[in-house]
């Protein structure tokens, strides 16, 4: 292996990336776009649910209860309906996500004592939102119920307030329960997967498709030099993109960073080696750019999105799928990144994940080298 | 005209379906993505690993903890004596949740005071923490209400029946068991069509240009309109076939209810396909190479999926992005898909979405045909 030949290969690749405005864009702009996209677009928090109320009684009590919905920051009462057909229609069109129905004998039954039920009809198409809406609705109703009881007890001469159990919840590592804080570490992994596999597999498949790979091989460069010369530029770019993502995450979205830089960039380097090898391998195996990019998409992009614990908790997946996640390196990276960002975990505590990434890197790099040599032979 | 169009279609279908790998590409990635979404994408929580410290050991604390463990949501990993052990368990990620009852809990309740329970959640685990805390609040609330009732029963056995109480009747419509799968799978039809059809179409057109066969085709008597139709019709049909495949698997394998009419769904999917083809043609007019086409479609697809309501509610996004999302065809097809599948609604409700897609398709197709002329000259 000669350094000057390797350098020449790498320079050629850099020039090629630099000349193609769109490749340059994916390299420079994409990390920024992705972080902003997910930082702003990915939020599972609930805000101001569009609410319809159907007050079948119209008594002071029912109005008092409904006023609590109107004044809560979680609800936005957009409509008063006067019948079930109108309510159904509001939910069908999606104009409202929640319908609150007060029964026609609400105040009479409250005065008589015993339980009165209030109906909460929720558009549960989106189950996560529905769960949150039910939670907040229940909190309003519980508050109303407790006050009514208090009044009643006072009238009965009972001065002691009813007992309550208070939950003092503390959420560690992400104290404000901000979606952003666990999204940004995951975005770093996605950016790397895209640059590593997607871009690499495309550029190398292009050399094959246009026949320039054969031209390269006929020069004195060895196959190892070709491979490294192709991959080193993307490695450098990937590391820069990672740094950009991390900078935006910390600087703009104010995601806490509690760990060590060495752990962060060390694991990033390992993961980049893995995805670059995968990208290279696909470009060698696939005949066309289309096939290479599709393989890359399904094998790295999708798993780093869905099977890495970035968005959906791995613990909640069925056992087969949970076992399967171990085969995708993104899983280890996302675990490491979340731990380094939010928990401030030190490298020794992450040795299993780091070792797994290292193993993937070695095996895949070896596979890619072999496949490349075989194809050339 | 029909004869030339027929020839063009035959050529395109031959090109798309000629080898096994190309055929695999059309149907295997959608299937894999469908299965992964069906099983991995879930916001439901089950068996969250929980550590418990009960320092009170009173009947009250035992009762409360028993209520937690009786639900399917929490899986008790350890019962600890020393609350200091919690730190390590959560740091290492062995427990996601910790419930800590301090001494004096039962005594406070018996005196009629507010008693508190400490809950610690590892919020790096996506939104599991948020949902789990919601369940805990609910269980504790119910416990307090029941406890209060028992206490009243002892103090004033006669009055208890008259204690007023408002209960919430939960009515989740459309997705009665609150399953994430019901929410995601109809949506997958839309997002997969978007990904498949844009990439395939854009690639097919750009490849001709890159390889130089576009000039060859243009010197034949074929007209531009016929060329564009010949290029898009195969992918329109492939998109329909993919949609049918996913819809079938979704209905029969995942058991997603289909409550609406097939023709409404078909109409929606066709309008959506037209707008997606418009996007793809537009991309192909601005891309000289396949790599550029890939990068450009990627830049379109990522935001389109993020800001469509596919996984994250649009209402939780910043206002500006909500406005932008009105230009996104995926936003409308998702409403149609979920409306037809889960709500069972028809055109009387979905006409605004259909019209919006038709308008987007019209604008994009006109624009791309116009640009196509220029791109060829």
Q: What do you see in this structure?
A:
The complex is a heterodimer of chains A (377) and B (377). Chain A is an alpha/beta fold and 377 residues long. Chain A has helices spanning 3-19, 21-41, 60-71, 84-93, 106-112, 127-155, 179-210, 212-218, 223-251, 261-285, 289-306, 319-325, 329-343, 351-376, and strands at 49-55, 75-80, 98-102, 114-123, 165-172. Chain A has a four-stranded mixed beta sheet, with helices on both faces. Chain B folds into two domains: 8-41 and 179-376, no CATH class; 48-162, abc type-2 transporter like fold (3-Layer(aba) Sandwich). Chain B has helices spanning 2-17, 20-40, 59-70, 84-91, 105-110, 128-155, 180-211, 213-219, 224-252, 262-286, 290-306, 319-324, 329-343, 347-376; strands spanning 48-54, 74-80, 97-101, 115-122, 164-173. In chain B, helix 7 packs antiparallel against helix 13 (329-343).
Helix and strand topology:
The complex is a heterodimer of chains A (377) and B (377).
Chain A: H1 3-19, H2 21-41, E1 49-55, H3 60-71, E2 75-80, H4 84-93, E3 98-102, H5 106-112, E4 114-123, H6 127-155, E5 165-172, H7 179-210, H8 212-218, H9 223-251, H10 261-285, H11 289-306, H12 319-325, H13 329-343, H14 351-376
Parallel strand pairs in A: 1-2, 1-3
Antiparallel strand pairs in A: 3-4
Helix pairs in contact in A: 1-9, 2-7, 2-9, 7-9, 7-10, 7-11, 7-13, 9-10, 10-11, 10-13, 10-14, 13-14
Chain B: H1 2-17, H2 20-40, E1 48-54, H3 59-70, E2 74-80, H4 84-91, E3 97-101, H5 105-110, E4 115-122, H6 128-155, E5 164-173, H7 180-211, H8 213-219, H9 224-252, H10 262-286, H11 290-306, H12 319-324, H13 329-343, H14 347-376
Helix pairs in contact in B: 1-9, 2-7, 2-9, 7-9, 7-10, 7-11, 7-13, 9-10, 10-13, 10-14, 13-14
The strand count of chain A comes to: 5
Radius of gyration of chain A: 29 Å
Estimate the helix proportion of chain A, in percent: 55-70%
Read across the widest sheet of chain A, the strand sequence of neighbours is 2-1-3-4
The number of helices of chain A is: 14
Major sheet summary line of chain B: 4 strands, mixed
Tally of structural domains of chain B = 2
Structural class of chain A: alpha/beta
Number of domains of chain A: 2
The coarse silhouette of chain B is elongated
What is the distance, rounded to the nearest whole angstrom, between the alpha carbons of the first and last residues of chain A? 18 Å
Q: What would you call the structural class of chain B? A: alpha/beta
SSE order of chain A? HHEHEHEHEHEHHHHHHHH
The largest inter-chain interface, given as chain pair and residues per side, is: A-B, 119 and 117 residues
Q: Give helix % range of chain B.
A: 55-70%
Alpha carbon gyration radius of chain B: 29 Å
Mean of residue pLDDT values of chain A? 82
The fraction of residues assigned to DSSP E strands of chain A is 5-15%
User: Would you list the SSEs of chain B in sequence order as H and E?
Assistant: HHEHEHEHEHEHHHHHHHH
Mean pLDDT of chain B: 84
């Amino acid at each position: 292996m000669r350094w000057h030949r390797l350098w020449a290969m790498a320079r050629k690749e850099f020039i090629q990336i630099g000349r193609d405005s769109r490749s340059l864009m994916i390299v420079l702009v994409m990390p920024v776009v992705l972080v902003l996209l997910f930082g702003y677009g990915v939020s599972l928090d609930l805000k101001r649910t569009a609410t319809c109320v159907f007050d079948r009684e119209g008594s002071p009590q029912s109005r008092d209860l409904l006023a609590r919905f109107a004044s809560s920051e979680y609800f936005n009462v957009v409509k008063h309906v006067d019948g079930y057909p109108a309510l159904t229609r509001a939910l069908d069109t999606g104009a409202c996500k929640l319908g609150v129905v007060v029964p026609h004998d609400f105040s009479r039954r409250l005065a008589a004592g015993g339980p009165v039920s209030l109906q909460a009809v929720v558009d549960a198409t989106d189950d996560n939102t529905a769960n949150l809406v039910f939670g907040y609705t229940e909190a309003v109703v519980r508050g109303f119920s407790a006050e009514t009881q208090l009044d009643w007890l006072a009238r009965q001469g009972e001065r002691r307030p009813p007992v309550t159990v208070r939950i003092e919840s503390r959420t560690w590592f992400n104290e404000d329960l901000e979606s952003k804080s666990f999204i940004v570490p995951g975005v770093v992994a996605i950016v790397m997967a895209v640059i590593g596999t997607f871009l690499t597999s495309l550029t190398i498949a292009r050399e094959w498709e246009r026949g320039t790979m054969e031209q390269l091989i006929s020069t004195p460069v060895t196959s190892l030099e070709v491979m490294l010369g192709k991959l080193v530029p993307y490695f450098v770019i990937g590391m820069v993109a990672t740094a950009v993502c991390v900078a935006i995450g910390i600087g703009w979205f104010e995601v806490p960073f509690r760990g060590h830089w060495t752990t962060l960039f060390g694991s990033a380097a390992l993961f980049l080696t893995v995805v670059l090898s995968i990208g290279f391998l696909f470009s060698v195996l696939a005949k066309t750019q289309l096939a290479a990019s599709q393989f890359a998409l399904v094998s790295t992009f999708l798993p780093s999105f869905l099977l890495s614990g970035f968005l959906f908790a791995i613990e909640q997946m069925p056992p087969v799928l949970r076992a399967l996640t171990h085969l995708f390196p993104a899983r280890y990276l996302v675990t490491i990144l979340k731990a380094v960002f939010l928990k401030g975990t030190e490298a020794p505590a992450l040795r299993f994940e780091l070792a797994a990434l290292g193993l993937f890197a070695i095996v895949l790099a070896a596979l890619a080298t072999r496949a490349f040599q075989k194809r050339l032979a | 005209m029909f004869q030339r169009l027929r020839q063009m279609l035959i050529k395109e279908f031959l090109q798309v379906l000629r080898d096994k790998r190309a055929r695999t590409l059309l149907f295997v990635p959608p299937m894999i993505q469908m299965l992964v979404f069906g099983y991995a994408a879930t916001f439901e929580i089950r068996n969250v690993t929980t550590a418990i410290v009960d320092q009170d050991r009173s009947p009250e604390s035992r009762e409360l903890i028993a209520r937690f463990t009786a639900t399917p949501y929490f899986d008790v990993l350890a019962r600890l004596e020393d609350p200091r052990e919690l730190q390590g368990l959560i740091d290492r990620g062995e427990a996601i949740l910790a419930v800590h009852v301090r001494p004096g809990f039962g005594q406070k309740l018996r005196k009629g005071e507010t008693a508190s329970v400490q809950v610690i959640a590892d919020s790096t685990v996506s939104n599991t923490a948020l949902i789990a805390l919601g369940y805990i609040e609910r269980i504790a609330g119910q416990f307090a209400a029941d406890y209060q009732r028992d206490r009243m029963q002892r103090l004033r056995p006669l009055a208890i029946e008259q204690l007023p109480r408002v209960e919430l009747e939960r009515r989740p419509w459309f997705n009665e068991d609150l399953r994430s799968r019901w929410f995601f799978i109809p949506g997958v039809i839309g997002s997969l069509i978007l990904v498949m059809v844009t990439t395939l179409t854009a690639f097919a057109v750009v490849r001709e240009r890159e390889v130089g066969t576009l000039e060859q085709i243009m010197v034949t008597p074929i007209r531009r309109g016929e060329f564009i139709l010949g290029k898009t019709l195969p992918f329109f049909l492939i998109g329909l076939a993919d949609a049918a495949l996913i819809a079938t698997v979704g209905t029969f394998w995942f058991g997603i209810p289909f409550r609406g009419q097939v023709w409404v769904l078909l109409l929606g999917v066709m309008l959506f396909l037209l707008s997606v083809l418009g996007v793809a043609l537009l991309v192909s007019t601005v891309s000289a190479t396949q790599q550029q086409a890939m990068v450009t479609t990627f830049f379109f697809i990522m935001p389109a999926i993020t800001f469509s309501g596919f996984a994250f509610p649009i209402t939780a996004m910043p206002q500006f992005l909500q406005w932008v999302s009105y230009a996104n065809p995926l936003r409308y097809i998702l409403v149609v898909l979920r409306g037809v599948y889960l709500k069972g609604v028809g055109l009387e409700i979905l006409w605004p979405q259909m019209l919006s897609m038709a308008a987007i398709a019209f604008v994009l197709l006109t624009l791309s045909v116009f640009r196509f002329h220029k791109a060829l000259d």
